[in-house]
Amino acid sequence: MKPENDTRISEFILLGLSKKPELQPLVFGLFLCMYLITVFGNLLIILAVSLDSYLHTPMYFFLSNLSFVDINFTSTTIPKMLINIQAENKVITYEGCITQIYFFLLFVGLDNFLLAVMAYDRFLAICHPLKYTIIMNPQLCGLLVLVSWMMSALNSLLQSLMVLWLTFCRDLEVPHFFCEINQVVQLACSDTFLNDMVMNFAAGLLGGVSLTGILYSYSKIISSIRGIPSAQGKYKAFSTCASHLSVVFLFYCTCLVVYLSSAVTHSSQSSAIASVMYTVVTPMLNPFIYSLRNKDIRRALKRINEMAFI
Questions:
Q1: What is the pLDDT of residues 170-204, one digit of tens each?
Q2: pTM of the predicted model, to two decimals?
Q3: Which CATH class is domain 8-308?
């Protein structure tokens, strides 16, 4: 018997995080709360940067872009998951699955690139303070964000189109709460060697280049901070990049946890649970990290709060 042709595929089944019906209300409530906190927290960051002229600097420009990306990042997966739980229906259409793959790869790639761009910004601010305003001008800031969008869009478009070329069998159950590209590709009946090669190459190249850039920037930053004679000067210099460093650590460590959990346990369910960390928890915590560790953001948020009650 020949496998079904991919033109007949109309839907996939998202198995979610748990198969137990009694846990679905808990999962729904938990993820709804996390999603609302993520959207509200990142919107506040965008609003603070937009309304406070003191925050109209490259660092906060990139931060507002990161917040915008994080809102869309979580909106790519969580709303569909919540709708499926509420409707007691685990189906996602074939077109919806491919669309979800595209936007997920787009926004996770943007997260990756923007964190590298923000590290470069901190490198210039601390290591080359006299040239900072000249180099990091509005045109360069816009260009860096534009290039990040273009690189992420090209990567996500290529990998999404390659999934369209695959032929799928009858078993269309995705052991995840969204259409994670690796899990979808594993369901294909046709040869997936090229897909696997492109996925690994893209992850290694894009992720490796960004992480290398971040590590290089912070190695130079640490060297510069060590050369500052006063303890107060060292603290002031480090405090300008502490929030970003915390977000970088959280993002890449959670991605590493997902990779190791799937490599060690070979369990799709374990990988799905671990991926919650970087797809939901990290975007939710980013506004808290920046608002708690950054006095400028706290001041802007306080001003917004005062304006709201006038």
A1: 778 998 899 999 889 989 988 999 999 999 899 88
A2: 0.91
A3: mainly alpha
